[in-house]
Design brief:
The complex is a heterodimer of chains A (232) and B (303). Chain A has 232 residues and is mostly helical. Chain A has helices spanning 2-16, 20-53, 59-69, 74-85, 100-125, 128-136, 141-151, 153-168, 172-178, 188-198, 201-231. In chain A, helix 10 runs antiparallel to helix 11 (201-231). In chain B, helix 1 packs across helix 2 (37-54), helix 7 (152-162) crosses helix 8 (174-186) and helix 9 packs across helix 10.
């Protein structure tokens, strides 16, 4: 019990004192997972739309693959992205191993299926008649998609939250492709594991509290956006 | 049909743009106006090339990181040489494997026999003795197998005979290799419920042993760092078999063209320098009342 209290006190102290190390780690966490989620949106939502609204051979197979991908284990992603990015790997000439960019790539691989899966389900929920109507009113394909996106913006925000929640909390991939390098690729999850290995449980608890606060803060903003959307 | 192709073309452009923004934004970490993005991208790629020459990847064992030693040495190295040090902390087995694949520039590890093999294969060069400390056998204060004060081989025999819980790293690390060698010397093939493998780093493994009340073999540095959290006691220490010897080496740039040759050499030189050896000697004395590592640069190899 005392340990938890100590951790809590430590967390408040680290935050209030604006500990530069912790600030950097927190900011990097937000940057990496934020940009990974953002990029995944541009891939996941169109993919979801295509899966839900078009018919092509093998569509069900792709759909089931995406649904499986929603639970893709981060360590598996970490391993495969590492193999690709190592110096002597197929993409080694980009020199991305142990950089934040590598972490963004790995987190995108984790987030894209989540966002694709949820948005595909959302698009399928839309009443088919609405789509007919939009088409009947002479909308182009792009306009149709845009209108549909407007229609499903609430579940899409849920997809964003699930995607962000998935990547901000993962550790396996970040540890493997990032390497937990101080000031460069150390994020809240990898720092927490390291502090536990070092036996600094109070700092680890403090970091975990900051991580949860961060995840809550981002989700809160998105939820507010989502719920404001329901009024109009 | 035309509309369909245009739709796909736009999708493709969006994807490419998103990927470009991601790469430029994250590797460059600078913000430019979109118009200059292409130019900036090229510049970022160029500086990326330079930073590769300036980056030294060190593959090392968990104990040098978990004990906090590299937290002290890293800024010194970077200040002195201008290189950025990327530390990858894994078991010695994994660190040597990274060296054998040319995925690191320097290695700081503690499994002399395995290291010699890597040097023989030509994957590593310039292997130098850096420092030592010792392994210790820790376990619960109740000491169910009555090993207190016994030399390591006898202690292992007693643990196996009593079938007392033993927590092994099981990860091919330097400590794990040492542990297996002691089992071999004791003539025992450890298996059964009482012998459990964690497959994790030293700090984690001590945590598991502590929770389950088991015995484990650890390096002294990690034990001292964890001491405040655990109830396990030192039960066997000090015999010659328990010496824990660290070497530093360069990954052979003649074999792997992508290895940072100067950087790797700079790290070896740094570890052997008088100032660094002095830092190693004094590391931990203020916090634990005793040194965690004993500098050995320039000394003769231990037999």
């Amino acid at each position: 019990m005392e340990l938890i209290w100590q951790g809590f006190v430590q967390a408040v102290r680290l935050l209030l004192a604006g500990d530069p190390q912790v600030m950097k780690i927190t900011l990097l966490t937000l940057k990496v997972s934020g940009s990974a989620t953002f990029i995944s949106l541009f891939m996941g939502i169109p993919l979801g739309a295509v899966l839900a609204l078009t018919r092509f051979p093998g569509r069900k197979i792709v759909f089931s693959l995406v649904n499986t991908g929603m639970g893709l284990p981060p360590v598996v992603v970490g391993l495969w992205v590492s193999i690709m990015l190592w110096r002597y790997g197929p993409l080694g000439f980009f020199h991305l191993m142990y950089t934040p960019a590598a972490m963004v790539i790995a987190q995108c691989v984790i987030a894209v299926p989540i966002i694709t899966g949820i948005s595909a389900a959302a698009f399928q929920q839309v009443d088919g008649k609405l789509r007919m109507q939009i088409k009947a009113l002479g909308a182009s394909r792009i306009q149709t998609i845009m209108l549909m996106v407007r229609e499903v913006r609430l579940p899409l925000l849920a997809a964003v939250m699930a995607g962000f929640g998935g990547v901000v909390s993962e550790i396996g991939a970040s540890m493997m492709v990032g390497g937990n390098v101080l000031d460069r690729t150390r994020v809240l999850t990898t720092a927490t594991v390291m502090e536990v290995s070092k036996g600094n449980f109070d700092v680890a608890i403090a970091l975990s509290i900051i991580l949860m606060a961060l995840a809550y803060g981002v989700t809160l903003i998105l939820t507010l956006m989502q719920q404001r959307g329901t009024r109009t | 049909m035309f509309k369909k192709t245009r739709f796909w073309a736009i999708m493709l452009i969006v994807l490419v743009m998103a990927a470009a923004v991601a790469l430029a934004g994250c590797s460059g970490q600078k913000q430019e106006s979109p118009k200059e993005e292409q130019k900036a991208g090229r510049q970022a790629a160029e500086t990326q090339k330079d930073t590769n020459k300036k980056e030294v990847i060190l593959a090392t064992t968990t104990s040098t990181v978990d004990s906090g030693l590299l937290d002290v040495l890293k800024p010194e190295f970077e200040k002195k040489t201008g290189y950025a040090l990327t530390i990858v902390s894994v078991g010695t087995g994994a660190a040597l494997a990274m060296g054998e694949k040319g995925e690191a520039d320097a290695l700081l590890v503690h499994a002399p026999k395995a290291e010699e093999k890597v040097v023989e294969k030509g994957a590593a060069v310039n292997r130098q003795l850096v420092m030592h400390n010792d392994f210790i056998l820790i376990g619960p204060a109740s000491d169910p197998a009555k090993i207190k004060g016994k030399p390591s081989v006898e202690a292992f025999k007693a643990i196996a005979a009593a079938k007392s819980l033993f927590i092994s790293r099981g990860d091919d690390s330097g400590t794990n290799k040492k542990e297996l060698k002691i089992w071999e010397a004791a003539g025992i093939k450890p298996s059964g419920d009482w012998y459990q493998q964690t497959g994790t780093g030293m700090g984690q493994t001590i945590g598991v042993a502590n929770e389950k009340g088991g015995y484990t073999l650890t390096d002294r540095a990690t034990y001292l760092a964890q001491k405040k959290n655990i109830d396990l006691r030192i039960l066997s220490e000090g015999d010659k078999d328990l010496l824990n010897i660290y070497h530093v080496m360069q990954v052979n740039p003649a074999k792997f063209s992508k290895v940072n040759a100067e950087g790797g050499k700079a790290f070896v030189d740094f570890m052997l320098s008088k100032e660094t050896q002095e830092l190693i000697k004094n590391f931990g004395v203020d916090k634990f009342g005793q040194p965690l590592f004993f500098p050995d640069a320039g000394k003769e190899e231990y037999k």
